[in-house]
Give the backbone structure.
Amino acid sequence: MRSVQKSEPVFTPYFSKVIIMPIFRNFINQLKCVSILIVLFSFSGYSQEEYKDPKNKALKETYSGGPFYEVSHYPQKFSKKSPKNIILMIGDGMGLAHVFASMTANRGHLFLENFKQIGFSRTNSSDDYITDSAAGATALSAGIKTYNGAVGVDPDKKVVPGIRELAEKKGLKTGLVSTSAITHATPACFIAHTESRGNYEDIAAQFLTTNIDVFIGGGINNFEKRKDGRNLTNELKDKGYQVLYKISDIQKVKSGKLAGLTAESHNPIMPERGEMLVPATETAISLLSQSKKGFFLMVEGSEIDFLAHENITPGVVLETLDFDRAIGSALKFAASNGETLIIVTADHETGGMSINGGDYKTGMVTAKYTSGEHTGIAVPIYAFGPGAEEFTGFMENTDIAKKMMKLLRLIP
Ligand code: MG
Ligand code: ZN
């Protein structure tokens, strides 16, 4: 609701076409996202009730500083030339400004500064200069440009295999972690094939048709409260999965297959979510790294995008810092393992965010936004580990998938 700005009485055709229609379209596009945010904010102990007030722009724009964490630095020495494992980390909507605002908030440092090989990805989809998260994740997963809304299918709606399933076929262990529902567009493109990202129940059902080893995220309702009456968590249990709902139980799992469903739909935004992404990432890595043949893991910081749509800087910063700490966990593993490549990137930028002020001493940072939607600007790619040098310079988002597939020898 907050994304529909109260319309002024001036109602010229220009105003209608250029101002209202894009906002309205965005509103429809983001209806799910927004309604979830409204629910979240109404239960929120975020003490940011003021954000609900559309007039309170300054509060939305400025993160006033807060606690910070120390970042560790890891040597760039790897035992192998090519990776046995790949951890792909997608910050949904995370452009350079989102990263740099968070770096400022954390007193000038992020785990991301361990990444010395940096490139840029063009994010356009097959039918639009500006991608949505489904076409963006299909590009990162399957290495093809497709239409906005497509999940793992090409512009002709033909199924295209993604890196996770190719890895699974080759005997690698595979996993998905997200803070959103695990059925939401980004993770969906690494598990399912469907014409429209809104087919959540279809996407949930497709988890049963794979041999995925670990998945942790929200989305219980798509597994248990379904129109077709199936209870997919019971079916998962029959297939041998440990199905767990609390992160405190999830992080105790030491072996076997794991389905962690920590929210009915999306997990709450930070800070209400608490420790979820970091322990989920660590649990997934500890289970997948038991594989002799290697593993592929996708970890998504999903809700950076949600807050960027809302142009809420404190939310963007807290979500990006949470994601960076998950990156820290992946780095710790990769640095000791020596044959793990970590790729951190985004599916697109959200909000047209720019940084207009900051203070490294207090962590204060203030940002402005040119959009409530995704934008067309290229997004950074950060690579660490064997094969990282492949990811420098400008490239298509589809190249990232193809390069990862080649490095894991999934394609010639
Ligand atoms: Mg996403
Ligand atoms: Zn978005």
About this structure: The pocket of zinc ion (ligand 2) is lined by residues 93, 133, 305, 309, 350, 374 (CB under 6 Å). The chain is about 35% helix and 20% strand. Residues 121 and 397 are 5 Å apart (CA to CA). The two ends are 49 Å apart (CA to CA).
